[in-house]
Amino acid sequence: MSQREHLLVRAAFKQEIERTPVWVMRQAGRYLKEYREVREKAGSFLNLCMHTEMAAEVSIQPLDLIGVDAVIMFSDILTPLIGMGMDLNFDNGPKFNNPVRNEADIDALKLPDPDESTPYVGSILRLLRSEIKDRAPVIGFAGAPFTLASYMVEGGSSKLFQVVKTLFFNRPDLARKLMKKLTRMTIDYLNYQIENGAQMVQLFDTWAGIFSVDDFREFIFPSIQEIFAGLNDQGKVPRVYYINGGHHLLKLAAQSGADVVGLDWRPDLGETKRLIGDQVALQGNLDPNVLFCEPEVIKAKVKEILDKFGPQSGHIFNLGHGIDKEVNPDHLRVMVQAVKDLSVR
Ligand code: CP3
Fold first, then answer.
1. Residue 76 C-alpha to ligand 1 middle, in angstroms?
2. CB pairs under 8 A, 24+ apart, for 49-55?
3. What pTM value is reported for the model?
4. What are the sequence ranges of the domains in the chain?
5. Neighbouring-strand partners of residue 275
6. Residue 61, H or E segment
7. Is any ligand 1 atom within 6 A of the Cβ of residue 25?
8. What confidence tens digit (pLDDT) does each residue in 48-78 have?
9. 322 secondary structure, DSSP code
10. Which residues, including other chains, have CB under 8 Å from residue 178's CB and lie 6 or more apart?
11. What is the DSSP secondary structure assignment for residue 18, as one 8-state letter?
12. 201 lines ligand 1 (CB under 6 A)
């Protein structure tokens, strides 16, 4: 490591920065033709996730091609569930052939040793650290327990979440049992990533926002607190908690033990800073669809967000959700360059 910690890590801990760091959720993905070429060679999305060299290659592409300030390891939130016994495929979006619907299904879930169930994750992280050296920090991640549970119970993606909500409301005892297992798995999995070189970790709770404040507090919040309390290297490896559609949950998110709260594009960044900015750093929150607009519009929207946060440390620029596969990479370059130019202290 050079004398100074990476910009991303300093912003996450609200230490002195010379400008705002920027990276993008799903930055390694289909909007890049270089990604699509490697994905083609791999044959399938899961093969790509499990192939150390190819996964590392696509992880590094946005650093070289776009100029972001961090590399997120290429993987998916659902892959560690394979080691728990889930039969996962990605033929047309994620699908589980053996959805979890009753107590026997929950009891059958294994708690794997990550070094045995996801050895490729450790080897991707180690390869990334040695290839990138000090050019940028490497971000690890996991799906939060409820977001994982929603796919496991529904059997795939869902719009209304009727099956998983019915299970949680009818049988809170089973919900707690499932959440407990997923919480344990997630702590082990993230600590494994930290041991293997992750320099920041993000917990994706994409679907937690479908719950009311009370239901979130009952079913989800305890597991998030337990995860952050159970992670190693506190104060050294920043921890991000991201919820999509979680504007009613921001105060709780700030009390979860995370160092950084990741925002979608809906909440006002200035108001959110006033609400929870004394407790946590903030990450976000450009509307991903802005990347379809003219370069001048992209720059103006970047400036609006930077101005809302102001010059203090404690902001990591990102989109409010993953980048769309139809975005022109030049537009993302415009966004990244605008953050770099307009945020110099
Ligand atoms: O951010 C990155 O660049 C790192 C890689 C990453 C992927 N997925 C790669 C991926 C990360 C961090 C994720 C997280 C993820 N995966 C989430 C949480 C964040 C969010 O988007 O809300 C969720 C809910 C998933 C589950 C998942 N994986 C879905 C719903 C899909 C299908 C989406 C689609 O657009 O088809 C995936 C597949 C997936 N994960 C792809 C990528 C690049 C596309 C598959 C392909 O290339 O064929």
1. 6
2. 49/74, 49/75, 49/76, 49/79, 49/120, 50/79, 50/120, 51/120, 52/120, 52/123, 52/124, 52/127, 53/127, 55/120, 55/124
3. 0.97
4. 3-342
5. none
6. helix 52-65
7. yes
8. 999 999 999 999 999 999 999 999 999 999 9
9. P
10. 100, 106, 109, 145, 149, 152, 153
11. S
12. no
Topology annotation, domain 3-342: TIM Barrel (3.20.20)
User: Closest Cα to residue 53, out of 74, 71, 70?
Assistant: 74
Query: Which of 34, 41, 66, 76 to mutate to test ligand 1, by most ligand atoms within 8 A of the CB atom?
Result: 76
Burial state string for 107-135 with b = 16 or more CB within 10 A and e = fewer than 16: eebeebebeebbeebbbbbbbbbebbeee
Q: What is the DSSP letter of 216?
A: I
Q: Tell me the two tokens of residue 300.
A: 């103006």
Mean pLDDT (the chain) is 97
Which of the 8 DSSP states describes residue 135? S
Task: Using CA atoms of 325, 330, 333, 338 in order, give the dihedral in degrees to the nearest 10.
Answer: -120
Please enumerate in sequence order all residues whose Cβ is within 8 A of that of 266, keeping only pairs 6 or more positions apart, or say none: 245, 247, 285, 320
Closest residue (by CA) to atom 22 of ligand 1? 206
